[in-house]
Amino acid sequence: xxxxxxxxALAVVVCLGVGLSRAGLAQGNLVVATGxxxxxxxxxxxxxxxxxxVLRRGGNAIDAAIATAxxxxxxxxxSTGIGGGGFxxxxxxxxxxxxxxxxxxxxxxxxxxxxxxxxxxxxxxLPFSPNRISSGAAVGVPGAPLEWxxxxxxxxxxxxxxxxxxxxxxxxRGFVVDRTFVQQIEQNQARLxxxxxTRALYLPKGQPPVIGSRFKNPDLAKTxxxxxxxxxxxxxxxxxxxxxxHTVQRPPVAATAPFPVIPGAMTLSDLDRYGVRxxxxxxxxxxxxxxxxxxxxxxxxxxxxxxxxLLEGFDLSRGDRAQAWHTVIEAERLAFAxxxxxxxxxxxxxxxxxxxxxxxxxxxxxxQMGDRxxxxxxxxxTAGDPxxxxxxxxxxxxxxxxxxxxxxxxxxxxxHLVTSDRWGNLVSYTCTLESTGGSAMVVPGYGFILNxxxxxxxxxxxxxxxxxxxxxxxxxxAPTIMRSPNGTLxxxxxxxxxxxxxxxxxxxxxxIDFGLSLPEAISAPRISQRNTGSTQVDSQLEQTPLxxxxxxxxxRLTPVAEIGAAVGLAMTPDGAxxxxxxPSRRGGGAALVLARSGWLSPLPWPGGLxxxxxxxxxxx
Length: 620
What we know:
Layout: H1 2-16, H2 22-27, E1 32-42, H3 45-56, H4 61-75, E2 85-92, E3 97-103, H5 128-132, H6 144-155, H7 160-173, E4 175-176, H8 179-187, H9 189-192, H10 196-202, E5 214-215, H11 218-230, H12 233-236, H13 239-249, H14 268-272, E6 277-279, E7 282-286, E8 289-293, H15 300-311, H16 321-342, H17 353-356, H18 359-366, E9 413-420, E10 426-434, E11 480-483, E12 489-493, H19 499-512, H20 518-523, E13 527-528, E14 535-537, H21 545-552, E15 557-559, E16 567-571, E17 577-581, E18 590-596
Parallel strand pairs: 14-15
Antiparallel strand pairs: 1-9, 1-17, 1-18, 2-3, 2-10, 3-6, 4-5, 7-8, 8-11, 9-10, 11-12, 12-16, 13-14, 16-17
Helix pairs in contact: 1-3, 1-7, 3-4, 3-7, 4-7, 7-11, 15-16, 15-18, 15-19, 16-21
């Protein structure tokens, strides 16, 4: 009865509350909050408000995270939802321990190594866009619904029905359409318009919804209602499962689709056998700080750890700042070379983690970092050899693997949320559909988009990340919880495909080495090197003294509109909270604290978690 009362109360809040759009929150600068009692930060005001209301009415951080994720499935449907999956890192205050939940999408039984080979052109791959990404063949078995149910059953206080109730009301009542929502439709209009069910929902009369209008999704409300009434089995064994399989096998292609759509081979058995994994976190020590993140099949925690281990041999806080970021760039380059060569689903691949994470291997790689950028225009570092440093006998590798280097795809359809509660528990949760708009296929009558996560496999074999039946494609998601030497905990993460790794590293370095506050670290310009000839930057960093300094060191900087859309929260040992979201990337975010203090003021909060150095020029 208490759970039902809470659910009804939350639904009332959604129906009666002011429909604050994401853009409205950003324009009001409500992207930093300080206080106590619990916090939520996301890219969306409605979702953050729902999560905060769960906390207000006695729910814990896990309850708030699931209710918030369900709301993001309504307001951020091109980034996340029950048609996708994700990785969750949870800190339990009472036990002082961290666990992770792997809700990654999984390949169907019929998956073969030539998954994306062009049947009409032997030996050639289908074009990545639109043929691979907008297809039934790209859809993995979604993990989000079961991940939500397992998180609540194991660690929450709400039922799945209660956690979904606010999102049901939100989908029924609708939310205010903002510029980001419209831009995501416009940028993917050809793909979204290729499917009749998607066109009907997101392109009425052939055009995106108008900014400022109210968008409703009654089909999604119905679907959430089925999950609330029948439990998660409705998705994996019931009517929803049948609809998912039918959509994958017989995509709802519009008569005017501008490209051929490849069907997939997912079956009801594939959905039925899906399982969420509870895994230990990765643990990385860096200058007295401990970072907990996601292990395989995500490369996020392992690769951020590799980068930070390389950097620990350098004092980034002293001397020229361009030289310091040059060092970061070169560490990222080497770590990504190793990531691309060795990492894959551990249930299918013998990954030489002991060697990769050893001091000897790290020192060997560190000696390969020069004082200037490599001068070859398309330089790519080769993978190192961890086998001489491999102490355990489990990997069967006896020589370096021969792997083909395919293009680095970076799905941007992902979102991150953080929550904390009055008991000191924290959640850092990254969830995704892969590309913006996923496969672009809305399940007819059910109102949610299916993922295209199997495009994260490397289609060129042999490779540790090659497609196989039941395998989970390698991810870059890196939801992180960090403990500082003074006991302060920081939960943070970002979307952005493989740039997630470099974004998380950048935030950690800004906090620890350069002494930025959490809001400054999140809003600072981003630098991303993923073993390619050029380094991506945003926020016009190439025009700043730092950018010019990097160019002077031989770096080729490629400006992009934005990298990631991070959120984070920090909690001191005595329970003081600071929550922060992006002020402008992806339209800005929403950071809320239960018992607010000094909502728009900095308040007495440490300027970062490190040594108190000034922020970079142009980064405030």
